[in-house]
Design a protein that fits this description.
mainly alpha; two-stranded antiparallel ribbon; about 300 residues; about 0% strand
Length: about 300
């Protein structure tokens, strides 16, 4: 039971990563590889600001701004220098490795004995992991609420139109380059928020903390979409949190089954591949069922023809 509660807590705060990635991956239709660098940047800036004496909540805001700037760099590479989005993301991610080392001054910094955004709730002496669940639920709820309002606005609709069909968006007078840049800034700002919240929860920031983050984010998105396909926008966005929680529970169960923790990344990749393949498997299943039904109807019709001839 404790492991399930722990998975719920971790799933909630990690769903922030999926919410950020959703904007670039699903709304703008861009595979943004800078995610792993931005996630670490959020953690590095958030933790370093606290060690310098800044308020933990303010440090989270600074991390969001830093992530948004990194997203703006990726947008600049794509829209102004015409670098393919995949390569632009990789370039930003590579550059951010050095930036993150500069921010932290070393490969790892901790928050031992320092105030974090969880400190106030911890004083309530709630059961273990409840502070993480409360903070995660509040932050995720706020982001979903902002998304719901934002994507109903004219600007939000223009962002969606840019990702759906650039040519059509341009014909409607939408500046797709500006939309892409702002969308990437928004996406990476929230990813950095995830990094800052998770780093404060862990009690440290590490230069390697972003490795594999994009796989976790994508897995959460895909699991949520597989379970809640063809629904309203609010439920679709909310399903990212559910997908993230389920992903954590699946990983806990897999590791409980006795597999080597060193295989965690490999298991994550295999799970993601399985969930990515699920829509195709469902399609093949329905096609097979339809063919069976069609074949059965054809056999019945063929049997009826001789009977009608005898009459």
């Amino acid at each position: 039971m404790n492991m399930i509660i722990s998975a719920l807590a971790q799933g909630l705060i990690w769903s922030l990563l999926a919410l950020g990635l959703y904007v670039s991956f699903r709304v703008l239709n861009i595979a943004d590889m800078s995610t792993e660098g931005t996630f670490t940047l959020g953690g590095a800036v958030g933790v370093q600001c606290i060690t310098l004496g800044l308020n933990p909540f303010v440090s989270v805001l600074v991390a969001i701004v830093a992530g948004a700037i990194a997203g703006g760099v990726t947008g600049f590479l794509i829209t102004k220098l015409n670098i393919p989005s995949l390569l632009a993301g990789i370039l930003t991610m590579t550059g951010l490795y050095s930036v993150n080392l500069r921010v932290m001054g070393k490969a790892n910094i901790n928050l031992l004995g320092m105030e974090t955004i969880y400190s106030g709730i911890k004083k309530w002496n709630l059961p273990r992991n409840m502070d993480t669940i409360l903070v995660g639920a509040i932050v995720v709820g706020v982001i979903i609420f902002i998304y719901t309002l934002f994507f109903k606005t004219e600007f939000g609709q223009a962002l969606i139109a840019t990702g759906d069909n650039q040519e059509m968006a341009r014909s409607l007078g939408i500046s797709t380059n500006i939309m892409k840049t702002i969308g990437l800034m928004m996406s990476n700002g929230i990813i950095a928020l995830a990094g800052a919240v998770i780093a404060q929860n862990n009690g440290y920031a590490d230069i390697q903390m972003g490795i594999g983050a994009i796989v976790i984010g994508l897995a959460s998105i895909i699991i949520g979409e597989v379970l809640f396909s063809h629904t309203s926008f609010v439920i679709r966005v909310g399903s990212l949190a559910i997908g993230s929680i389920l992903y954590r529970i699946i990983m806990v169960l897999v590791l409980e089954a006795g597999l080597n923790p060193n295989d965690f990344k490999l298991i994550s990749a295999i799970l993601l591949a399985i969930f990515l393949a699920l829509p195709k498997i469902k399609e093949l299943f329905y096609v097979r069922q339809y063919r069976k039904k069609l074949s059965k109807q054809t056999r019945v019709a063929t049997k009826k023809i001789p009977d009608e001839g005898v009459k």
